């Protein structure tokens, strides 16, 4: 919810959004499992104009050793935006925003990953945002989940993610950058579809209690669509044409 642009038409009289989508229509999503030969697992996602690559390493020894836990493994996540990923060059140093997003993605993945199976070790998840267009944390979380599965890390469930939001007093699915900047609310949601549990829920903006419920409902339905594409990506790699 950055600077609001009063002149931008976010929803026209026919209920069509600024990029031509209907209110409940996600952007085009393409997920590919695998691709990085030096990683234990990897995934690439295009979520509208977001382009994100994820590499997973581990379970492996923890350095420094005192950070390891004798009872359980640990998950470490680094979310990083390339300087060229946005219109104006981004400073390559980690920003507060990147540190926060790394933390929320880690916490959203932890309930799904069976870290107790790997005491004393770490699983590292490296997220590289090559191109950003609103909703990178959801796209990154979705791809990270596929990369963890690709690495063979035992998981209770996948985590699928998408944002719901509000523009022109209307609840929408999958908030793009313009809608994030000029709209009324952005609610990223991460969801485990089989366990029916939400692992990420943030809200930037203001919603009525009814709108809040509708956003959660629309977001969870969106996550189920994303989950189908995660499964398809893994099926294509392991049972499909063998690519990756
Ligand atoms: P998310 O990408 O998860 O929606 P934000 O709401 O913080 O996270 O960011 C929204 C969008 O703003 C990003 O997807 C990106 O397109 C843009 N953005 C973020 N950081 C920068 C930056 N430093 N410079 C330009 N645009 C940025």
TrEMBL record:
A Pfam family it matches: RNase_PH_C
EC number: 3.1.13.-
CDD domains membership: RNase_PH_archRRP41
InterPro entries per the UniProt record, alphabetical: ExoRNase_PH_dom1, ExoRNase_PH_dom2, ExoRNase_PH_dom2_sf, PNPase/RNase_PH_dom_sf, Ribosomal_Su5_D2-typ_SF, RNase_PH, Rrp41
Transmembrane segments: none
Enzyme type, top EC level: hydrolase
One GO term (biological process): rRNA catabolic process
Name this protein carries in UniProt: Exosome complex component Rrp41
Organism: Nitrosopumilus zosterae
The gene coding this protein: rrp41
């Amino acid at each position: 919810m950055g600077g609001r642009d009063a002149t931008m038409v976010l929803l026209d009289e026919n209920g069509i959004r600024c990029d031509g989508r209907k209110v409940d229509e996600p952007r085009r999503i393409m997920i590919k499992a695998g691709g990085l030969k030096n990683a234990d697992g990897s995934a690439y996602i295009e979520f509208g104009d977001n382009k994100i690559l994820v590499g997973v390493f581990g379970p492996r020894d923890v350095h420094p050793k005192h950070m390891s836990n004798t009872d359980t493994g640990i998950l470490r996540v680094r979310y990083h935006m390339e300087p060229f990923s946005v219109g104006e060059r981004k400073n390559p140093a980690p920003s507060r925003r990147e540190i926060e997003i790394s933390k929320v993605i880690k916490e959203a993945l932890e309930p799904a990953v069976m870290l107790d199976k790997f005491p004393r070790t770490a699983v590292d998840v490296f997220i590289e945002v090559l191109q950003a267009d609103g909703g990178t944390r959801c796209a990154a979380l979705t791809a990270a989940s596929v990369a963890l599965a690709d690495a063979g890390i035992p998981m209770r469930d996948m985590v699928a993610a998408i944002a719901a939001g509000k523009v022109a007093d209307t609840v929408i699915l999958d908030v793009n950058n313009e809608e994030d900047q000029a709209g009324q609310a952005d609610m990223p949601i991460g969801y485990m579809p089989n366990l029916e549990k939400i692992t990420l829920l943030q809200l930037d903006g203001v919603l009525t209690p009814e709108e809040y419920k509708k956003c959660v409902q629309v977001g969870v339905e969106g996550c189920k669509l994303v989950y189908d594409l995660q499964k398809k990506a893994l099926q294509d790699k392991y049972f499909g044409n063998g690519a990756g």
